[in-house]
Write a structure and sequence with these properties.
The chain is of the alpha+beta class. Helices cover about 25% and strands about 15% of the residues. β3 and β4 form a beta hairpin. Bound molecules: delta-meso nitroheme. Delta-meso nitroheme binds next to β7, α12, β10 and α15. Delta-meso nitroheme (N7H) binds near residues 191, 195 and 246.
Length: about 475
C-alpha cells in the first residue's frame, strides 16, 4: 500500500548515481520561496521515477550498450530551522525527536564530535559553512557532472540565483560534490571496502531480497506506516523520512599506515596479509565485502560475489574466539544481529535500522600521500541515511553503540570490553579482539574519520511539498 508516486526516490531505492551534488541553503524570502517551490516540485524524482530509471539502465545494458545514459534525480529535504523559517508547524516531527529539534550543530556534542562550549552554545570543530543555519538541502544525483550541473543551474534559476531573471528567495550556504570512485574501486569507500551491501529490505517493496537480516516494515523508513514509532502524522508528514547528513573526512593514508604498523600476528601470515586481516577485523568484512563471520582468515571474493551468501550471517555465538568477528567491528557495532536479537536478550533491532545512501567525495590518493602516509587532500564519505526516527536510528547507533566500549553485550562473555567502533567511534578510542589468539590484547586507535559538518532533515512527500510547503 505504499504510494510510490508520493515518496521521494532516495528514501526507498536510492537515486542512481555516478555523482551527487548536495546544495545547502537558507530561505530568505518565505512567500517568494513558496511560490517558486511550485515550479521546482515537478523536478523531484519519486520512488516510481527511480524504478523507471533503473529499468532504463537495465534495458540499456541488455542491449550491450556501454555508453552511459543521461540520468538525473532531484530530491529536497528541510531542517527544523527550515520549517520554523517557513512558519510550518512541525511538532509531529520534533515531539519525539530531540535530535531533529536541536539540529545537528548542537547535537554534535552528544554525538561525540570535538568542539567547545555546552549545548545550546556548542560549537563543533566543523567547516565554517556548517556552523551557519541550514534550512534545506537539494540533492541532485546523476550520470555525470555535466548533467548534474545543468540541473543545478535550472534549479538556481527557479529560485532566483541566476544572474538574470527571478528575484532570489534563497541564499546558498554551501555546495558539496560527491563522486563514486573510478574503475575497480566503484562501490568501494575510500579505505577500499565495498559498501552498500547491507541495507534494510522493506516488506511489500523489496520483493526479492537477498538472504540476510529480517525485512523491516515500511514504517521503519517511511512515516505514517506500520513500524513508524512516532506520533500520529498529519497528512503532509506521511510518506516522508528523516534524512541524516554527515560530512565525514577519512584519513586514508593514516589508516593504511596504521594497518601496516599493526599486522595481526597470526602464524603463517606475511606482514601484508596480517595488515589486510586487521583491516577486515576492524570493518567486519574484507575489502571484497566477504564477511569475517563466514571467512575469518582469508578473503573470499567468490563468496563476496554471491548474493545468496554475502549478507547471510548472524555473528556466530558458538564460534571459537579465534574465528569470531570482533564484537566492536564496524558492521557488528552498527547491526549486532544475533547479539541482541537472539536469546538470552531477544531484543528487536528493527526500529534501529537505517537506509544508507552515502557517496564518496575527494580525489584518489596521490603518490605523495601514499609515500608520506599523510593526508594532503580532503576526502571521505558524504554519509546520508534515512529512517523514521533519528533518535532510534543514526543517533542511537552513534551514541549508544559506536561510542560505547561495552557494546555489544556479548563481549562480556570474555570478560573484556569490546571497545569503540574502530571507524566511527568517538571518545577513548580502543578496540579488543583484533588478535584472534589473544582476547585480552587491546589496540589503541588514532582517529580515522573526522566529522566536519552535517544536519538533520525531513524529506517530505510530494503531497506534503505540493499542498503544505508550496503555495
Ligand atoms: Fe558504515 N567503511 O567503508 O568502512 N560501513 N561506514 N556507517 N555502516 C558499512 O555491509 C563506513 C557509518 C553502518 O547491515 C560497511 O553494506 C565508512 C556511520 C551500518 O550489517 C562499510 C564510514 C554509520 C552498516 C562501512 C561509515 C554507519 C554499515 C560494510 C564513514 C551510522 C550496515 C558494507 C566514513 C552511525 C551494517 C555493508 C549491516 C556498513 C564503512 C560510517 C553505519 C565498508 C568509511 C556514521 C548500519
Amino acid at each position: 500500500d505504499l504510494d510510490l508516486n508520493n515518496i521521494q526516490g532516495d528514501i526507498l531505492s536510492g537515486l542512481p548515481k555516478k555523482t551527487q551534488t548536495y546544495f545547502f541553503f537558507q530561505i530568505t524570502d518565505v512567500t517568494l520561496f513558496r511560490s517558486q517551490l511550485v515550479k521546482f516540485i515537478p523536478l523531484v524524482k519519486t520512488v516510481a521515477g527511480v524504478l523507471k530509471d533503473r529499468k532504463a539502465i537495465e534495458d540499456h545494458k541488455k542491449k550491450g550498450d556501454k555508453t552511459l545514459i543521461t540520468m538525473v534525480g532531484v530530491n529536497i529535504a528541510f531542517s527544523h530551522k527550515g520549517f520554523v523559517a517557513m512558519g510550518i508547524d512541525d511538532a509531529n516531527l520534533t515531539s519525539t525527536e530531540p535530535n531533529f529539534e536541536l539540529g545537528q550543530r548542537q547535537d554534535a556534542k552528544n554525538l561525540g564530535d570535538k568542539g567547545t562550549g555546552d549545548i545550546p552554545n556548542f560549537v563543533p570543530e566543523w567547516e565554517p559553512a556548517f556552523l551557519q543555519d541550514i534550512h534545506a538541502v537539494i540533492l541532485i544525483s546523476g550520470d555525470s557532472h555535466r548533467t548534474v550541473d545543468k540541473k543545478l543551474q535550472e534549479i538556481k534559476e527557479i529560485f532566483g540565483l541566476a544572474p538574470s531573471g527571478n528575484k532570489p528567495s534563497i541564499k546558498e550556504v554551501t555546495t558539496i560534490v560527491g563522486d563514486v570512485r573510478p574503475g575497480k574501486e566503484s562501490g568501494h569507500e575510500h579505505f577500499g571496502f565495498l559498501d552498500g551491501i547491507s541495507n534494510p529490505s522493506v516488506i511489500g517493496f523489496d520483493t526479492s531480497p537477498i538472504p540476510g537480516p529480517k525485512q523491516v516494515p515500511a514504517g521503519v523508513l517511511v512515516t505514517g506506516h506500520d513500524g513508524d514509532v512516532g506520533p500520529t502524522r498529519p497528512d503532509w508528514a506521511v510518506d516522508g523520512s528523516y534524512l541524516t547528513f554527515r560530512y565525514l573526512f577519512q584519513n586514508v593514508p593514516e589508516f593504511n599506515q596504521f594497518l601496516k604498523e599493526n599486522p595481526v600476528p597470526l602464524p603463517g601470515l606475511t606482514p601484508e596479509e596480517g595488515s589486510e586481516l586487521l583491516g577486515a577485523r576492524l570493518v567486519g568484512r574484507w575489502k571484497s565485502g566477504a564477511p569475517i563471520d563466514l571467512t575469518p582468515f582469508n578473503d573470499d571474493p567468490e563468496l563476496a560475489d554471491d548474493p545468496q551468501r554475502v549478507n547471510n550471517f548472524r555473528f556466530q555465538a558458538e564460534a571459537t574466539f579465534a574465528k569470531m568477528c570482533p564484537f566492536a567491528s564496524h558492521i557488528r557495532k552498527t547491526l549486532p544481529r544475533a547479539d541482541l536479537e537472539d536469546p538470552p536478550l531477544n531484543i528487536s533491532i528493527q526500529k534501529n535500522r537505517i537506509a544508507r545512501r552515502g557517496v564518496q567525495f575527494g580525489p584518489e590518493l596521490t603518490k605523495e600521500e601514499k609515500q608520506s602516509g599523510k593526508t594532503a587532500h580532503g576526502r571521505g564519505l558524504l554519509f546520508a541515511c534515512y529512517s523514521t526516527s533519528i533518535k532510534n536510528g543514526f543517533a542511537f547507533l552513534q551514541e549508544t553503540w559506536a561510542n560505547n566500549a561495552n557494546f555489544p553485550p556479548g563481549g562480556a562473555s570474555t570478560g573484556i570490553a569490546p571497545g569503540l567502533d574502530p571507524l566511527i567511534g568517538q571518545g577513548n578510542r580502543m578496540i579488543t579482539g583484533t588478535d584472534p589468539n589473544d582476547p585480552s590484547s587491546t589496540l589503541p586507535l588514532p582517529e580515522f574519520i573526522v566529522p566536519r559538518g552535517g544536519e538533520y532533515f525531513f524529506s517530505p512527500s510530494l503531497k506534503g511539498l505540493t499542498e503544505t510547503l508550496a503555495a
